[in-house]
Amino acid sequence: MASASFLKSSPVLDKSDWVKGQSLRHPLSASVAVRHHPAAGFSVRASSYADELVKTAKTVASPGRGILAMDESNATCGKRLASIGLENTEANRQAYRTLLVSAPGLGNYISGAILFEETL
Fold first, then answer.
1. CA distance 85 to 99
2. Is the distance from CB of 79 to CB of 65 less than 8 angstroms?
3. CB 98 within 8 A of CB 7
4. Is 100 within a domain?
5. Residue 41 vs residue 10, higher pLDDT
6. Disulfide: which of 12, 27, 81, 110 matches 94 by Cβ 3.0-4.6 Å?
7. Residues paired with residue 115 on neighbouring β-strands, in sequence order
8. What sign for the dihedral angle of Cα 35, 100, 87, 74?
9. pTM over the 0.85 mark
10. Is residue 34 included in any domain, yes or no?
11. Which structural domain range is residue 78 located in?
12. pLDDT, tens digit, for every residue of 39-88?
């Protein structure tokens, strides 16, 4: 399992009390319902980058996939951590975000992510 080995070897996670000793658990089953609404036909001219822009937009908006919004501020992330009894430290926030992006099979359902500045 690539994600488990990634999590175990992450230097960020070694600093976090949140992840130490935790095991990764997979849900027994997951169900996702997605509706596809075809966009109205229209043409757009975006100079020499038009083809690349259209290709990127089609990839991001592909059926059955979405964008993971993980751009929570430090304060909002701190509220999530506090709800499980953890301090709002940079190491704990990074461990939380690492856990989100290392979920097995995430790439099957997510085509992009919105990040908070600290994540970069």
1. 17
2. no
3. yes
4. yes
5. 41
6. 12
7. 70
8. negative
9. no
10. no
11. 11-18+48-120
12. 556 665 656 788 888 888 888 888 888 899 999 999 999 999 999 999 99
